[in-house]
Write a structure and sequence with these properties.
Peptide Deformylase, 5-stranded antiparallel sheet
């Protein structure tokens, strides 16, 4: 496993649409392991492959480091969304920037796990937010384009 470089605001790769994964092989498993390590290193809740410079439809999510397993989704598709929540959001690709966005309160997502098995996850609240955020990345969309006017905040490391 290795830490990957997170692509930052202004990197044009963040606006590109990721391609579906055709084959689950050792190289993809290595990417997934590296993404998990990178997400944990930077205390993230989720990470999309495009954020580490790989245009593949892969996301990892970990909303509760103490309890649950890391969710790995390959070729995820949001099948259903319900409700709305106005939430504070940040992104590892936009360090020290936070803003309010509107996300679904609940989503149903389908995809493959890291072994190629089809899985369906219903996410509520933070998990729904994280799934929607990461799937947006796969579609070349970033949270900064969805912020509610006047809510963008810059947090300097000294303020943390």
């Amino acid at each position: 496993m290795a830490l990957r470089t997170i692509r930052q605001e202004g990197d044009e790769i963040l606006s590109k649409i990721s391609k579906p994964v055709e084959k689950i092989d050792d190289k993809l498993q290595e990417l997934i392991d590296d993404m998990i390590e990178t997400m944990h290193h930077y205390n993230g809740v989720g990470l999309a492959a495009v954020q580490v410079g790989v245009l593949k439809r892969v996301i990892v999510i970990h909303t509760d480091y103490e309890k649950e397993e890391v969710i790995v989704l390959i070729n995820p598709e949001i099948k259903k969304q319900k409700g709305e929540q106005c939430v504070e959001e940040g992104c590892l690709s936009f360090p020290n920037k936070f803003a309010k966005v509107v996300r679904p309160e609940e989503v149903v997502v389908e995809g493959l796990d890291r072994n190629g098995k089809t899985i369906k996850i219903t996410g509520k609240d933070l998990l729904a937010q994280a799934i929607a955020h990461e799937v947006d990345h796969l579609n070349g969309e970033v949270f900064i384009d969805k912020i509610l006017p006047g809510t963008l905040e810059y947090i300097t490391p000294e303020q943390e």
